[in-house]
Amino acid sequence: MRRITWLLALLLLTLAAANALAADKTRDRYRWTDAQGVVHFDDVLSDAAIQAGYDVVNGNGMRLRHVARPMTAEEAKAEEKIQAQKKAADKVAADQARDDAQLLAAYPTEQMLSEAHQAQLAMIDQYIQATQISLQSQEKSLTDNLTHAADLERTGKPVPANLRAQIESLRANIEKQKAYIVAKQQEKVDNAAKFDAELAHYRQISDKPATKP
User: Fold this and answer.
1) Residue 173 belongs to some domain of the structure
2) Is 54 helix (H, G, I), strand (E, B) or coil?
């Protein structure tokens, strides 16, 4: 009877030891390396491990996850800057992708895009031509008024105030129209360059394979 009791007690001790060993193997531990390169294993997360950065490992020493050390104020500021730059770059890329999709949807073919470009340049030409016609008319009126004023002065007659006002108004309008023509001519040059770049970009994105959802 005593032998059976002893064997039963031994069996219980063996089971308890096995359970303790199994529990120890499944329990997470903390592994970290100090400034001297010494690796430490702790059952309790210490301040030194937190400050150095640590691995959470299982009972077999396999890493489950890594927890980085706290960043300094300078590192946190640098990381914030990096994240802000990344966010800005992501937004630029997203906006470009949206614009590309809209461009391809609006102009299914390269010919349609080219025709739209030419139509816009032709409209600028029309504005320039219409202003040039008006300019010629204003310049003729100015010449006529200046001739009339000169004739009055040669004969000793005073130049009426309304004639002087017309001359000044015509001169001002002529300068404005000349400036407008120069601006439109530059606008045409700028748009032509922009359209060339847009057409080149269109060719690039239209050759890309469709992105799978």
Assistant:
1) yes
2) strand
Q: Are residues 37 and 100 in the same domain?
A: no
In the structure encoding, which two tokens stand for residue 37, read together?
């390169």
Total H helices, total E strands in the chain: 5, 4
- pLDDT tens track for 147-166: 999 999 999 999 999 999 99
Query: 127 in a domain, yes or no?
Result: yes
Q: How far is it, in rounded angstroms, from Cα 69 to Cα 66?
A: 10
Q: Can you give the residue range of the structural domain that contains 45?
A: 25-70
Shared domain check, 118 and 81:
no
Distance CA 56, CA 42 (A): 10
Displacement of CA 100 from its chain's centroid (Å) = 14
- State phi, psi for 143 to the nearest 5 degrees: -60, -45
Report the interhelical angle of 161-206 vs 110-154 (nearest 10°): 170
Q: Taking the model in full, what pTM does it have?
A: 0.61
Contact 42, 49 (CB under 8 A): yes
90, part of any domain:
yes
pLDDT in tens, 75-112: 999 999 999 999 999 999 999 999 999 999 999 999 99
Task: Looking at the structure, tell me whether residues 123 and 172 fall in a common domain.
Answer: yes
Structure tokens at 98: 């949206």
CB count in 10 Å sphere of residue 163: 15
Q: What is the dihedral of CA 164, 166, 172, 177, to 10 degrees?
A: -150
In the 8-state DSSP scheme, what is residue 156? T
